[in-house]
Amino acid sequence: MTIDTEAAGKVLSGLRPFPVAITTIDGGFANGLMSLSAGAASIIPEAPRATISLTKYNLTHDMVVRSGVFVMHLLSAEDDRIEESLEILMTLGGSSGRDGDKVGKLRTKTGVTGAPVLLGAHSYVEARVTGTLDVQESSIFVGDVAAAEVLHPGRRLQIGEAWSKLPPAWIEQYEANHGPQLANARSRRFGDAG
Fold first, then answer.
1. How much is the pLDDT for 194?
2. Which of 2, 64, 82, 92 has a CA 20 to 30 Å removed from the CA of 170?
3. For residue 158, what is the DSSP state?
């Protein structure tokens, strides 16, 4: 059977409109990244859960495995907040935590889980991991929400809007950095034949 990967991409990418900043802490070192794979994971209003999917290539993945905590942030699209939203996106999405401290470049406070909360974000939920699903190249983490706050009300930044405002040189560097992550994911999913 042949899969129409272009059609699948259009359908599935439509389910991920919001870029989400994920932060965590492990052994006193804070780190984070940008993801398009996050969401709600409970229908019980008084017991909310969040879900994130992180590729195993990323340092943040291993840190969430060890620490069992994460903070999921939405970014603001409001005119007076957009520059800080783009700074968060470029800082967390532009390099690896293996290359140095990314979170220290951003305004933060310590959350109830000990993980950093990004003060420039639109809103956030902090979570403690309650379940993990291994899906070869990624892990899907589900966490009970331990804290939540709307820091800056207004519109939330969508990925299309964010991408249209990012500097072309940054996008070019992101694409170059994304290559090894994609190769790692293919290798984990398909083996050496991928």
1. 46
2. 64
3. P
CATH (domain of 156): 2.30.110.10
By the 10 Å C-beta count (0-12 exposed, 13-18 middle, 19+ buried), 2 is classed as: exposed
Structure tokens at 75: 């970014």
Q: Is 35 a domain residue?
A: yes
In this predicted structure, what is the pLDDT of residue 137?
96
Range of the domain at 46: 9-193
Residues making up the chain, counted from first to last = 194
Residues near 133 by Cβ (< 8 Å), separated by ≥ 6?
139, 140, 142
Mean pLDDT of 101-118: 97
Structural domains in the chain (count): 1
On the question of pLDDT at 1 being above 90, the answer is no
How far, in Å, CA of 180 to CA of 36, rounded?
18
* Contact assessment for residue 157 and residue 85, using Cβ atoms and an 8 Å cutoff: yes
177 against 29, higher pLDDT: 29
Task: Give me the pLDDT at residue 16, please.
Answer: 82
Over residues 78-99, the mean pLDDT reads 94
